[in-house]
Amino acid sequence: MTTANIRIRRTDGKAEIVLDNPGRRNAISAGMWEELRSFADSAQADATLRTLVIRGEGSVFSAGADIAGFDSARKRSDAQSYDDLVESTLRALEQLPQVVIAAISGPCVGAGASLACACDIRVAERESFFAVPAARLGLGYDPRGISRFVRIFGKGATSEMLLLAARMAGPRAFELGAIHRLVAPGASATCANTLAELASSLAPLTQRAAKASIQEHANGTGISSAVLELAARADASLDYEEGRAAFAQKRPPIFRGR
Questions:
Q1: Do residues 25 and 162 touch, judged by C-beta distance below 8 A?
Q2: In sequence order, which residues have a C-beta less than 8 Å from that of residue 176 and are 6 or more positions away?
Q3: Predicted confidence (pLDDT) per residue in 225-238, tens digit
Q4: What single-letter DSSP state applies at residue 133?
Q5: Is 208 helix (H, G, I), strand (E, B) or coil?
Q6: N or C, where is the chain less crowded by C-beta within 10 Å?
Q7: Is this structure's pTM higher than 0.85?
Q8: Domains of the chain: which residue ranges?
Q9: To which H or E segment does residue 111 belong?
Q10: CATH topology for 5-200?
């Protein structure tokens, strides 16, 4: 029997996280959310890890939350606890210092779309699509998740997906800026890994400061002292010295995150 889980492989400062629930089109169970949260917690302070790539096993990113487990994990009385688990996991991923890239193929639905929106960079295949079919199930979609969709897709597209339970094709998501790279069928993982290699070669302290600043701008919270400190840390780093030296010597820089 195939067991639904999260498969993680690490190589040379990069982690590949695979949603591995093929029998249910990579639907994400409560247990899988807990595994993702546990990994995010451990990755937070891991200076050896530069990038993460998240993808689904096979030709599907994710068919959404595993509703087969809703009778136990998201009963009416427990819906808030389940939504809190999902939201805390997504926020933990968003707050990682590393660059997180989603490789999207096929359906990217509901909770799967929320997971993709929590990533920094999204690569999608032309035949992929996004959908949030909450109105077909009668559940109250977490407003925190809707806020994330609005930030990534915009109010108009989010209204269409939530109010009409409509699909959004990959090319339209690309036109809206929700997708950063639109690629041929079967090419999302390769493209995502190429971008991960690029990101891993760049200055991690600069990336961390920029990522935190981008998130604060997107959330409309203004610039905090913590973000200013991150930028100042990059300015005072050995990596900044290395970057200037490499530029002067016309060679690739070697950044070490310090």
A1: no
A2: 153, 154, 157
A3: 888 998 998 899 99
A4: T
A5: helix
A6: N
A7: yes
A8: 5-200, 204-249
A9: helix 111-117
A10: 2-enoyl-CoA Hydratase; Chain A, domain 1 (3.90.226)
